[in-house]
Design a protein that fits this description.
The strands form 7 sheets. This protein has a 7-stranded parallel sheet with strand order 4-5-3-9-11-13-14, sandwiched between helices. Strands 8, 10, 12, 17 and 18 form a 5-stranded mixed sheet that branches. The protein is an alpha/beta fold. It has 15 helices and 28 strands. It is globular. Strand 6 and strand 7 form a beta hairpin. Helix 2 packs parallel to helix 6 and helix 3 packs parallel to helix 4.
C-alpha cells in the first residue's frame, strides 16, 4: 500500500483488492520471466530502480523519450515491474523482465505501426530468451481468428514451449476480434471498470467467450517517462495486470517446487472466472469468460479446487486511484496516447498492430480511425508513417549479438532511397533518364558493371514482403554479389536459401525497416520446383508401383506445404532445421515415394529436439508422418532424419529412419 504523506487517503497502487492475497505468498521470483512487447521503456524511471529488466535488440531503438511509444511502453512495464518502494507498485516486481520494443512514435502523437511479421520476430526473440509470459498490449482488428502465417507460427512456438501470450482484446467496442488475442492458446484481456462492469469500448468477439477474461482497464496508475506517473484507460493497461498475476502464480508454483506451467494457470483463470456485473439490457457476451477470481485460480493450481467467494468478502474487482502523487507533470486521464503498430509500407500483406488504450473521457465510444489491416496497441488511430529507430546503413553491431539464420524465400532488391535510385537511373540513361528502371535493363547493366551490385539492397521476401536485407561482407563479398545477380537473372528461379548471421537493420526505400543478414556463400542456393522435380525424376526416385506423374504431384504438394504452410523467419533452431530439410528435396522425395507406393499422403511435419546428439552439437529431428486417407485403420508411417544446426550451415546426421505407428 502506498500512503501519501499529509493525506488521509490510502491508495492501492496495484489496483487489485485481492492482490495482497498473493503478495503474502510471493512478489515474484527471478526464475519467472515476463516479456513486454511494446514501446521503448524508460528504465531510468524510479519505479524500475532494482528491477531485473533486460532490453532485447529489435528493429526499434531502445532509447525512451517523451513520445507516444515510450509513454505506452513505460506505463505497461511499470504495472508489472514497478518496485514497491516507488510511486508505482508493480504486480510482480521481483520477476525477471524482457523489454522488446516494437512500437515507435508516429505523426500527431500517434504510434508508427509494426507489421505482424515484426511482432512474430519479437515473440520468437522473447521465447528464445526464456520468457514464460509475453505481454502484448495491442492487436490488429480482424474479421476472423486468423493471422499471417509467420505470426501463427510464432504463437504455435509459444504453445509448444509452454509460453503464455497475454494480449489485449481491443478497444473497438464491438462484437469483433483482434489478433493475436483471438489466436488459439492466447489469453485475451478485456476491460472493466471499478464496479465490475464491462467498459463500452472493450471488444467481445465470439472467440473471447472461451479464452478472454475481464480485468480493470480504467484509470490504471503507471509510470511516464521522466519520472512521473499518470492514470490511463484501455485494454492495453488491463493486459499487464493479468500478465502480472500470471507471473505471481508462476512464482508460487516455483516456490512450491513445481514445474512452471503458464498454460495451466491460463486454464485456472478461465475456469475460476466470476460473472461480471450486468446492468439491465447489457449483452452478456461483453463479460467474456468472466472476471478475475484470484483466490479461485490460486486454489485450482495448488489444490485443484475453485475457492468460492463468500458474501462477506469484497468483490473480486480492481480498484485504482483517480489521482496520484507525481514527481513531475501528470497526464490527465482524459488525455490519450494513440498507439499503432501498422505496416508502414503499402503491400498486399501489410498488416499491423496498435496499442490498446482508450479515451477515459468517453469510455463508451468506439475508437475509430483504425485500418482493419493494422495491428494496433488497442486504443489508437493509425497514421501511416515511417518507423524511426533504424539507420540507413547496416549498423550490424546493432547493440546485440549476431544470430544464426537460415531463411527460405524469394530474392528481391531495393534502392534504399530515391537519391540512390536516381543515381543508378542516370548512370544507365545519362542523356534522357526515365522515371524507373525495367528489371531486365538493370540486370544487363549489372552484368557489364558488377560493382554496381553493391549499390542495391538485396532482399529476401515472402509474398512480396521483404523480411531481410542481404549485406555481403568480408573477402568473399564479391562472390556473394555475383551469385545474387546470377539468381535474379535466372527467370526460372523461384526460391533461394540464405544462411548467415543476422544483426542490425536497414531501411528500405518504402520506409520499412528489416533485419540485415551477412550471408554465408557456401549455403546459398536457388531452385525452381519444376527443375527440382525434373532432377528428382531423372534420379529414379519414382521406381515402384506408382507412376511418375502421381509421384511428381505428391512431391509438389509436400513442397507447397513447406513453402507456404510452414514458412518461417529461419531464426529458431527448429526453423533452421526445417528450412534446411526443405532444401534437401532428394531426401524428402525418398520418403514421399515410399509412402505413395503404399497409398499414403502427408499428414504432418514436425521438428523436435533430438534425444540423442553428438557432443557440441544441436540436433533436431524432422519427422514426416503419412496416413492412408482411404483407410484410417491402417497404421501411419513416420520418416525421421536428424539435422545438426550448431553451425551456420546445418548438416544431416545419419540416414533417414522410418517406422509405423497406430
Amino acid at each position: 500500500m502506498l500512503i501519501h504523506q499529509g493525506e488521509e487517503r490510502v491508495f492501492d497502487s496495484l489496483a487489485l483488492s485481492k492482490t495482497k492475497f498473493l503478495w503474502d505468498k510471493s512478489v515474484g521470483v527471478p526464475d519467472v520471466c515476463v516479456a513486454v512487447i511494446d514501446g521503448p521503456v524508460d528504465q531510468s524511471h524510479p519505479c524500475f530502480d532494482g528491477a531485473n529488466l533486460t532490453w532485447l535488440p529489435t528493429l526499434v531503438s531502445s532509447v525512451a523519450d517523451s513520445g507516444s511509444a515510450s509513454q505506452h511502453g513505460t506505463h505497461v512495464a511499470s504495472i508489472i515491474f514497478g518496485q514497491h518502494n516507488s510511486p508505482v507498485h508493480g504486480i510482480a516486481p521481483h520477476c525477471r523482465g524482457l523489454i522488446v520494443p516494437v512500437f515507435t512514435n508516429g505523426r500527431e502523437g500517434g504510434l508508427a505501426p509494426c507489421s505482424q511479421i515484426d511482432l512474430a520476430r519479437a515473440i520468437t526473440q522473447a521465447v528464445g530468451q526464456g520468457a514464460n509470459v509475453i505481454n502484448i498490449s495491442g492487436g490488429q482488428l480482424t474479421t476472423s481468428a486468423e493471422s499471417d502465417q509467420l505470426l501463427a507460427n510464432a504463437v504455435r512456438l509459444c504453445q509448444e514451449n509452454n509460453v503464455l501470450i497475454v494480449a489485449a482484446a481491443g478497444n473497438d467496442g464491438c462484437d469483433c476480434l483482434h489478433v493475436p488475442a483471438a489466436l488459439e492458446s492466447v489469453l485475451a484481456v478485456g476491460a472493466m471498470d471499478a464496479q465490475g462492469n464491462p467498459i463500452g469500448f472493450s471488444n467481445w468477439g465470439e472467440v473471447y467467450q472461451n479464452q478472454g477474461i475481464l480485468a480493470l482497464g480504467e484509470n490504471i496508475l503507471g509510470a511516464i517517462p521522466g519520472g512521473g506517473t499518470a492514470t490511463k484507460t484501455g485494454t492495453s493497461f488491463a493486459t499487464p495486470i493479468v500478465s502480472g498475476i500470471v507471473a505471481l502464480l508462476l512464482s508460487i508454483q516455483r516456490q512450491r517446487g513445481e514445474k512452471l506451467d503458464p498454460h495451466a494457470i491460463r486454464d485456472a483463470l478461465l475456469q475460476s472466472a466470476l460473472p461480471c456485473n450486468q446492468p439491465k439490457g447489457l449483452d452478456s457476451r461483453r463479460c467474456l469468460a468472466g472476471t478475475f477470481n484470484i483466490p479461485g485460480a490460486y486454489a485450482l493450481i495448488t489444490k485443484g479446487e475453485i475457492k468460492p467467494v463468500s458474501n462477506d468478502e469484497p468483490e473480486e474487482v480492481m480498484l485504482q486511484p483517480s489521482e496520484a502523487d507525481n514527481t513531475s507533470e501528470q497526464l490527465q486521464p482524459s488525455e490519450t496516447i494513440d498507439l499503432s503498430l501498422k505496416q508502414p509500407v503499402s503491400l498486399p500483406s501489410g498488416i499491423g498492430v496498435q496499442a490498446a488504450e482508450a479515451k477515459t473521457s468517453m469510455p463508451s465510444t468506439i475508437s475509430r480511425g483504425v485500418n482493419p489491416m493494422m495491428f494496433t496497441p488497442s486504443n489508437a488511430k493509425t497514421p501511416s508513417v515511417t518507423p524511426s529507430g533504424a539507420d540507413g546503413d547496416c549498423g550490424c553491431g546493432g547493440g546485440g549479438s549476431m544470430q544464426m539464420v537460415y531463411v527460405l524465400g524469394e530474392l528481391g532488391y531495393d534502392f534504399g532511397s530515391q537519391a540512390r535510385m536516381d543515381s543508378i537511373i542516370q548512370a544507365i540513361f545519362p542523356n534522357n533518364p526515365p522515371r524507373g528502371i525495367p528489371e531486365d535493363i538493370l540486370l544487363n547493366y549489372l552484368s557489364e558493371n558488377p560493382y554496381y551490385a553493391q549499390s542495391l539492397i538485396w532482399t529476401v521476401e515472402l509474398d512480396a514482403t521483404p523480411i531481410y536485407a542481404i549485406v555481403p561482407s568480408g573477402p568473399f563479398a564479391g562472390v556473394v554479389y555475383e551469385r545474387l545477380h546470377e539468381f535474379l537473372s535466372d527467370q526460372s528461379v523461384e526460391r533461394v536459401s540464405i544462411p548467415g548471421y543476422s544483426g542490425g537493420s536497414i531501411r528500405l526505400m518504402s520506409g520499412q525497416v528489416v533485419p540485415a543478414i551477412i550471408p554465408e556463400v557456401r549455403g546459398m542456393y536457388s531452385w525452381s520446383v519444376e527443375a527440382l522435380l525434373d532432377t528428382l525424376m531423372a534420379d529414379g526416385t519414382s521406381e515402384g508401383g506408382i507412376t511418375r506423374d502421381v509421384l511428381r504431384c505428391r512431391i509438389r504438394e509436400v513442397l507447397d506445404r513447406i513453402y507456404y504452410d510452414f514458412r518461417n523467419l529461419g531464426v529458431t533452431p527448429q526453423d533452421r532445421a526445417f528450412n534446411y530439410a526443405a532444401t534437401n528435396a532428394y531426401q524428402l522425395s525418398i520418403a514421399i515415394s515410399t509412402a505413395s507406393e503404399n497409398d499414403q499422403v502427408l499428414d504432418t511435419i514436425e521438428v523436435e529436439k533430438s534425444p540423442i546428439c553428438r557432443p557440441d552439437s544441436d540436433c533436431y529431428d524432422v519427422k514426416l508422418r503419412f496416413f492412408n486417407p482411404e483407410n484410417n485403420q491402417r497404421a501411419k508411417k513416420v520418416y525421421r532424419f536428424t539435422i545438426d544446426v550448431s553451425d551456420v550451415i546445418p548438416v544431416t546426421i545419419g540416414r533417414m529412419r522410418s517406422w509405423s505407428e497406430a
